[in-house]
Amino acid sequence: MNWQSMKIEEVLKNLNTDIDKGLDANEVKKRQRIYGKNLIEEEREINFFKKIIEQFSDFMVITLFIAAGISFIVSVVNKNNDYIDSIIILLIVFINAIIGITQEKNAEKAINSLKKLSETPIKVLRSGIEQRVISENIVPGDILLLETGDLICADARLIKTQKLKTEESALTGESLSVSKNENTIFDEKTPIYKIKNMIFSSSFVTSGRSIAVVTATGMKTQVGKIAKLINKNSTPPTPLQTQLNETGKMLSMATMIICCIVFILGLIQKADILEIFMIAVSLAVAAIPEGLPFVVTLALASGVKRMAKKNAIIRKPNSVEALGNANVICTDKTGTLTQNKMSVIEIRNIKGIINDNDAKEIINCSVLCNNAKQKISCISGEPTEKALLEKAIELNISKNSLEKEMPRIKEIPFDSSRKIMTTVHKTKNRFITITKGAPDFLLELCTKYKKGEQVFNLSKNSLKDIKNNYEIMASRALRVLAMAYKETTIENTNENNFTFLGLVGIADPIRSGARKAVRLCKEAHVKPVMITGDHILTAKAVARELEIIKKDSEAISGSQLDKIGQKDLEKNIFSYSLFARVLPEHKMRIVKAFQSRNAIVIMTGDGVNDGPALKAANIGCAMGISGTDVAKSVSDMVLTDDNFSTIVETICQGRGIYENIKKTIHFLLSTNIGEIVVIFCACLFHLPAPLLAIHLLWINFVTDSFPALALGMDPIESNIIKTKPSDPSQKILSGTMGLNIMTEGLGIGITAIIVFIIGSNLFDNYPLEPIVGRTMAFVSLGLSQLIHAFNVRSKKSIFKTGILTNKKLVAAVIFCAILQIIVTLIPVLNTIFKTVNLDFPQWCIVLAATTIPIIISEIEKFAIRNKYA
């Protein structure tokens, strides 16, 4: 029902409850059977075995299972009972699965955090007696008795209020407390942030008292509706997840095709079927980059550690690379771009801005006409009054001392119709009446104004000057309060004949570093978008100050958004940079509209209302300090400092990590193609096997893996933030990267096969068993790949990058080179790997061959530089 559209009598009648008695125990039990507990329903948790299956459903992982099977078949055919390769491959797969399951934080925890609301005892009226009841036992029709500080556990229609204000920012995004009034009636289509005669679950009372009747509990509340939206949405896969999956499919299909070609060529050449099968198996082993998923996982895990040091806790490792590809940040205003703390920004008198010393009389009055309480460690009260009191403390003005000198004897409370608050204070021989409130209302009660120590009559011109100052402040979206007073010899509560003192401008200040962060966003080709529940004028002022918008046409309100169809929104979404007065449904629409245009969206939030959009975004980013449990639970990243600047820093880190992963993929695929070329060429030209299966597995697991891990931890380039994020629709192997991988792989492979031919023809006595040529090809291929790791670090020349800038890579290359050489020196290893000790001329040929990858890479980089020069 539309409770906000009904009169109080109708609401009570429809809910069949009594304002003076509430419900009795029997009626409560009856209603609990009908409506259930006041809880948020949990989404059914995914079965543990299903989670395991999901970890193994990735195509690259399936490919690794195939590789393990192939390796097992090789061992069976050779009858050597050597299953270590199969075990290693399976071990990699299961380690990845364990990491994935332990890192995963399911969004269902959001529902559990909402349940925490049920732990709060609530004061209700039942059978005419005030009782404390656990909120999960609240039912529709219960009469709530609320006062300052109480958490509101259900949606309710107000019956009686006394200066009631509630904080609804977690639900609506509105940063200011909302004044409530039971008498006003609202249309059924009225947005939630405009409904003043109702209170809502998850908000709390900031000041005043009220009696209200519960209209909805559990999943029927506004919070419950948001929980349903959270359950319906899922985070889309990251670009890397999608691209690795596609790459795995492509590699597997290509491997199968090449294996079939090799097998057919062997049959045509009338080779032994078992021998052909073994060659095809070797080719399959060479083609599959067994270490790739493991290396990517460790690179992402390294990124998680890096970002934790930058005040960003990453809950899902894949979000690290998604951050690097982000090109839209949808950010909340309050607490992220601003400090989420109302502060006095400036004070003016009739002539304009005045300094703190000249403003002390204005602040003195604002402290006396103020209900905020100053305690030892904190200030409690309504945000605007807290801001006035904090300004007084900054100026060493003590509220307690002032109240001792001029005790309050009477108060006329703030009223939404009068827009002012008045207090009367007594001194030794006189009375002082102070009023504060909206300038438009207060100025009508003034007849004089004070400038310095002198008082003047308020003329049309002086009134015009005051209003000009007010308009200047209002245009900057400051919340403006006017201060006035009068002195009398008798107690006087008449609100007239006041002397105007000045104007106080209050706002939520811009965070330190926010302006610079927005500029960096634009340099990084990332569009900053502000989404807030605040009034559009307030939001525009902040957005302009931060240079998020330049024109009014870039801003749109929630009510305007309702009139635009989703297709039109998607078409024009990049025209908007500010969305104000939005609801949870609006945030969802905005995120999906950007995603429909291939944008990778970061969504920030701290409230319950942000939950659905946080889950639907590519990267949900919650505030660690001010954020609700709901926001944190559904997010991919939590900021421990609630700072927008931290998001920009994580984009920089994410972009660098994504580039490192691309380097790793580049390195592994190009080296694997080199291995394929060696085997394929040998088969094509009917040569003896230049490499054995054990050689290929050694190279893949040792010579490739350690440098690949070091590449995944490559230092991030200083200008990485200025590079464009990758297009998510573009495949990882498209463009120059795919061409480079093929060219470099061909160069490495052809070089190794040439070394094999030279070695077997010049140094082997037994051409059918070319042990020297095979050793030379094995060592040459391994060392070439190690040198190639330095080529893929940067698009710059290897001589300009600086080899020593990645000490981990240098160490990995030296370590692997030593292992590669040892295999040829130690007799026991010679027997296992079927290698021999090379002499000086043979080593000269091998070492000369290792320079080929550098030459090929330098030619590529030179050609690319000239193309884009």
From TrEMBL:
<dbReference type="GO" id="GO:0005886">
    <property type="term" value="C:plasma membrane"/>
</dbReference>
<dbReference type="InterPro" id="IPR023298">
    <property type="entry name" value="ATPase_P-typ_TM_dom_sf"/>
</dbReference>
<dbReference type="InterPro" id="IPR006408">
    <property type="entry name" value="P-type_ATPase_IIB"/>
</dbReference>
<dbReference type="InterPro" id="IPR006068">
    <property type="entry name" value="ATPase_P-typ_cation-transptr_C"/>
</dbReference>
<keyword id="KW-1278">Translocase</keyword>
<dbReference type="InterPro" id="IPR059000">
    <property type="entry name" value="ATPase_P-type_domA"/>
</dbReference>
<dbReference type="InterPro" id="IPR036412">
    <property type="entry name" value="HAD-like_sf"/>
</dbReference>
<dbReference type="Pfam" id="PF00690">
    <property type="entry name" value="Cation_ATPase_N"/>
</dbReference>
<dbReference type="InterPro" id="IPR001757">
    <property type="entry name" value="P_typ_ATPase"/>
</dbReference>
<keyword id="KW-0812">Transmembrane</keyword>
<keyword id="KW-1133">Transmembrane helix</keyword>
<dbReference type="GO" id="GO:0005388">
    <property type="term" value="F:P-type calcium transporter activity"/>
</dbReference>
<dbReference type="GO" id="GO:0005524">
    <property type="term" value="F:ATP binding"/>
</dbReference>
<dbReference type="InterPro" id="IPR018303">
    <property type="entry name" value="ATPase_P-typ_P_site"/>
</dbReference>
<feature type="transmembrane region" description="Helical">
    <location>
        <begin position="274"/>
        <end position="301"/>
    </location>
</feature>
<feature type="transmembrane region" description="Helical">
    <location>
        <begin position="732"/>
        <end position="759"/>
    </location>
</feature>
<dbReference type="Pfam" id="PF00689">
    <property type="entry name" value="Cation_ATPase_C"/>
</dbReference>
<dbReference type="InterPro" id="IPR004014">
    <property type="entry name" value="ATPase_P-typ_cation-transptr_N"/>
</dbReference>
<protein>
    <recommendedName>
        <fullName>P-type Ca(2+) transporter</fullName>
        <ecNumber>7.2.2.10</ecNumber>
    </recommendedName>
</protein>
<dbReference type="Pfam" id="PF13246">
    <property type="entry name" value="Cation_ATPase"/>
</dbReference>
<dbReference type="InterPro" id="IPR008250">
    <property type="entry name" value="ATPase_P-typ_transduc_dom_A_sf"/>
</dbReference>
<keyword id="KW-0547">Nucleotide-binding</keyword>
<dbReference type="GO" id="GO:0046872">
    <property type="term" value="F:metal ion binding"/>
</dbReference>
<feature type="transmembrane region" description="Helical">
    <location>
        <begin position="809"/>
        <end position="828"/>
    </location>
</feature>
<feature type="transmembrane region" description="Helical">
    <location>
        <begin position="840"/>
        <end position="859"/>
    </location>
</feature>
<keyword id="KW-0479">Metal-binding</keyword>
<keyword id="KW-0597">Phosphoprotein</keyword>
<feature type="domain" description="Cation-transporting P-type ATPase N-terminal">
    <location>
        <begin position="2"/>
        <end position="76"/>
    </location>
</feature>
<feature type="transmembrane region" description="Helical">
    <location>
        <begin position="250"/>
        <end position="268"/>
    </location>
</feature>
<keyword id="KW-0406">Ion transport</keyword>
<dbReference type="InterPro" id="IPR044492">
    <property type="entry name" value="P_typ_ATPase_HD_dom"/>
</dbReference>
<dbReference type="InterPro" id="IPR023214">
    <property type="entry name" value="HAD_sf"/>
</dbReference>
<dbReference type="Pfam" id="PF00122">
    <property type="entry name" value="E1-E2_ATPase"/>
</dbReference>
<keyword id="KW-0067">ATP-binding</keyword>
<dbReference type="InterPro" id="IPR023299">
    <property type="entry name" value="ATPase_P-typ_cyto_dom_N"/>
</dbReference>
<keyword id="KW-0813">Transport</keyword>
<keyword id="KW-0472">Membrane</keyword>
<keyword id="KW-0460">Magnesium</keyword>
<feature type="transmembrane region" description="Helical">
    <location>
        <begin position="59"/>
        <end position="77"/>
    </location>
</feature>
<keyword id="KW-0109">Calcium transport</keyword>
<feature type="transmembrane region" description="Helical">
    <location>
        <begin position="83"/>
        <end position="101"/>
    </location>
</feature>
<keyword id="KW-0106">Calcium</keyword>
